[in-house]
Amino acid sequence: MLHLMKFLLAIIVATLLGGVPFLSAQEPPLPAATETPTASPSARPELNIPEIPLTVEPAPLVPNTSPAPLVPNTSPVPSKSAPPLEELDAVFKKSSLGKAVEEQRRHVEWRKLKNRTVQDPDIVAAKAAADEARTDLEKRNLMRAYYKLHYARMQALASTPEMKAYLDGKKKAMLASLDQPLVRPNPTAGASPSP
Question: Does pLDDT of 129 surpass 90?
Answer without folding.
Answer: yes
